[in-house]
Amino acid sequence: MNAPSDRVRRVYLAGPDVFRVDATARLQRLVEACTARGLEALPPAEDASGPATPPAEVAQAIYDTNMALLRRASGVIADLSPFRGTEPDSGTVFEVGVAIALGLPVVGYGIPEGSYAARVETALPTRRDADGTLRDANGMAVEGFELPLNLMLACSIRIARTAEEALDLLQQRLG
Predict the structure, then answer these.
(1) How do strand 158-159 and strand 106-109 relate by DSSP bridges?
(2) How much is the pTM?
(3) How is the chain split into domains, by residue range?
(4) How confident is the model at residue 57 (pLDDT cuts 50, 70, 90)?
(5) Between 77 and 47, whose confidence is greater?
(6) Per-residue confidence (pLDDT) for residue 2, from 0 to 100
(7) Which CATH class is domain 4-113+150-174?
């Protein structure tokens, strides 16, 4: 077994960057930031299939690869910025849950200032009950715990402002 200082610390890079036009450049920047800190980056899989590969097979291959990468990771940084609405990307949230279940430390970033409820109230049609409970247009209660994310995320991870700060915090947690 390697001494702790010789241990390879692998960081899975969770987030919706793979959907961006500049995905390769953004992920490369994160890989370089990991390398500068002595960490090995594990970027998520991308679609490397040919045009004749059925979409379901491509999706399964990406899922299988990302799950294998998560199992190799020492920790995770996760871009939890709002994605197509007020919530983080569902795939990223899934990866955070897997990491937590595997006992890995997770640091999220990209989360806007303020509470989740305040962002929902600003972004979507809402109303307040007589007791002050905030409800969305479908009558569903919006969590009012003054947390920046849903409690299951906010209570299970550490939060940083930027990806670089997330890497620094994760590096400290990994020792």
Answers:
(1) parallel
(2) 0.92
(3) 4-113+150-174, 114-147
(4) very high
(5) 77
(6) 39
(7) alpha beta
